[in-house]
Amino acid sequence: MSTYILRRVLLLPLLLFGTTILIFGMLSFLTPTERSALWVQNIPRNERQVEGIIRKYGLDKPIYVQYYIWLVGNKDPETGEYEGGLLRGDLGYARSASQPVMDIIKARLPNTLDLAIWSVLPIVVIGILLGVIAAINHNRFIDQVTRVFSILGWSFPTFVFALVVLMIFYAGLGWFPPGRVSDWANQVILSGDFHTYTHILSFDSLLNGRFDIFLDVIRHMILPVITLSYLNWALMLRVTRSSMLEALRQEYVTTARSKGLKESVVIFRHALPNALIPVVTIAGFTIVALLNGVVITETIFNYPGIGRAAARAALNLDVVGILGLTLFNGLILIVANLVVDVLYAVVDPRVRLS
Amino acid sequence: MSRKHLFWTLILLAALSVLVAGCAKQAVETVIVGGEVVVVTATPEPGEEPCDNPFLGSCKLDGNGIPPDFFSDEHVRKGFNYCFDWDTFIRDAWAGEAIQNVGYLIPGMVGYEPDGPHYTYDLDKCAEELSLAWDGAVAENGFRMQIAYNTGNMERQTAAEILQANLSEVDERYIVEIIGLPWPSFLENYRNSRIPVNISGWQEDLHDPHNWAQPFLVGTYASRQNLPDDLLAQLKELVTKGVSATTDEARAEAYHELNQIDYDQAIAIRLVVPTGRAWMQKWVEGYYYNPIQDLAARWKSLSKTSAAADPTTITYATIGDVDTLDPAWNYENFGDNVILNTYEQLVTYDGKSATSFVPLLAEEYSISDDGMVYTFKIRDGVKFHEGQDLTASDVEYTFERGILQGGTWSPQWLFTEPFFGTGVYDIAELVDPSGALDDAPEDLQAADSAALMAACEQITGQIESDDAAGTVTMTLSQPWAPFLATLAQSWGSIIDKDWAIENGTWDGDCATWQNFYGIDSATSPIRDIVNGTGPYMLDHWEPGVEVVVTRFDGYWGDAPALERAVWAEVDEWGTRFAMAKAGDADLVYVPREFVDQVTPYASTICPWDSDQQVHVCEDVPGAEDQPLIVYYGHPTTYRADVFFVWNVAH
Questions:
Q1: Where are the domains of chain B?
Q2: I want to staple A305 with a disulfide (CB 3.0 to 4.6 A). Which of A112, A243, B77, B346 is the partner?
């Protein structure tokens, strides 16, 4: 088991390296002028302006030289020392966001985490619950209803559903506003009296004893959480349902029933734990998706998370921003994948033993 | 996937990337142009140069292409002009919200001739001109070419489609293909001089005819049109005459002459100026329209009635973000607005007027008879946000530091031209007139130190201050009619000398300026801090989220009504719309295509009265309960034109 984990951890940097190579490879599709378009937003006043940008940012250097600079940084001609570069923890300056990539991650990751934490609970718990209900009521009315309900959610385009709930619950009823916090709460947070412990606002507001701010934060998160939950329930439901049905057909369940155990014990003690094994994988990937930022949901609810920054970088062809954020997403994906695999081995002895 | 396969997957990925890199050059051409049209590459005759410019088709007048110098024939350019239908364009591209433009200037400025020479839609004349073109070869064989626009610009696409439809109506063998290119590819092709006809736009920096004559007839656009040298020389002379004339009559004369040449030569198809709309909640008061000064650039003129839930804070739901708050570097709209609220200039606009000025940080000013020496008396008792007093040397330092910091992507070229002469776009050109040192700080630092010193001493000699008398004198190299207009914009904002130096800008010593030259917008030491004399102070700027300013209690002028102003960056239109409906956004940016969606929510509409130059408001019957008010119909300061290129690369 430990060799398995060790091997996976050792592979991690290699995987990340591969990711960067792949992204940089795609970069060579673009000419220096095309890459300068990020800085050159208008028809240039004279020819030298574009040349200046290309020279300044080394856009015409061979792709491997640009990669090397991005990796180890620029050499200062006077001191001979290197500055910047990925290996020094510098992901570069994302022009589309008007700040360095590291600052985007520092500022935005806590927000994305906040949303992910509050979304995971309803997605996983209610998703599994619906799946179990559907399975034990197999082919009955309630099974059909839950399935139709969640399939509808699954097939809704995110932007349609998000806009509809925004129009009803914000523009119409005025209950749940978009954004991160209200302006009054933001003034308190930015004042010196508010201590940041975790950078996650819902936790920090409680730790500061500001229940009013906590409620404000939650109020801003309700619509994105509902959107994310509704769109993700179908997947959880379907996987839980089918694997639950599978488990209920197993001989050990028949044995348990014939022992005269109560039906609830049979379902929750015997069938469910085994049925949950594939669900762990799905839940893992859902969490990864949430951590990487949910582009459309964050954009429509104007929620300042990683996903919105990534969307801006992509729209503006901000290579540095795209590279940095993709690398970060890759890191999360790979680590989370590892965790899921390990968890898998823990919950399923068959994986461990093979 | 089995774990041991992982290694090989990685190898595969790496190999793939190398492959991708190798193919890239080849792929670009096909990817860009292959999407919409068939690329026909002519096989060159022996001894003939190959033609691989897809915009030109076969590169010959054989009915399947055009020669690279197709538009050097004036009959072609005139024919294209006659084939353009302005009314359809205004209706289809701008939903009726635009005004036809006569000539290269925009309506309402010195030199603009509402009745001047201009082309009108006339298919017969179009046919006639094209039959004369290329000694009849065009009419005999027809032609096929591509017109490019950059994607996301509906109006540019529509302009191309109108030409396409009308030319084919004149003769079905006159074939225009329209190609939408993403901005990076458009820039690539534009820069390589491959596009024979392109549609591009300009947003004015100052409300002055020079700001149109310069880019459209001699600068940015004209330089890419490959105009013949004698024509260009003639235009340059007149443009210089127009900007340096000291009376409006003399200026107008030069601009009228230019208009005649523009018409005779049919240099471009001059399109239309769109009219604008400003949407806000009914409780916002104090709105007036100034063409060059955005509403969000003067929060101090606005207030909110008690009908608003929060009458002290104003929230503007908009798009975009600040690039830099260094007034010497900022050259885009969002930053402009933040800077204009927090910093102040020597002079400013007189209310609604975009062409007359009133003193601001200068108590009074005088201009010498020859129009070359400007003297400003600096106002007493003005304090910066951090408590320092405004002095004449702050003013001197501000302009010297801005010009010496340079950068061709900064607005400093608007100062280098009046101080050093037309055509000088950067301080580095005083060291090397070829422009080889522009934007190249390392090369500049290696330049001859005497030349460096001389450049710095020239500008420090042209701007002089006297703290005891409280005056600043600026000596231009030639009379410059739009000089006050240049000073009134965000790049004319006065900063505190000691504060700026403390934070790491140029130390005021001519021996070191080259070390502060040519920074980029991200690295200015005063990029995200503000210490101005304006009515508002920067509270915070959270990139991608919001910019907030709060009232400055030590402001020398009248205290503004609003205590706090928020620019909320809301990328998605639906979200901004919801914020306006919910009353959380006091002002909202509405893209043109969504106007119909918002109109039912306006209880008051205020169309522009062009005679009186004001908005005249009226209530919408039956809509009394709706929350919004809209001001519309005022001409904006933006225009796109169709530019012909005399000679393109092939």
A1: 62-274+639-644, 283-319+542-626, 324-534
A2: A112
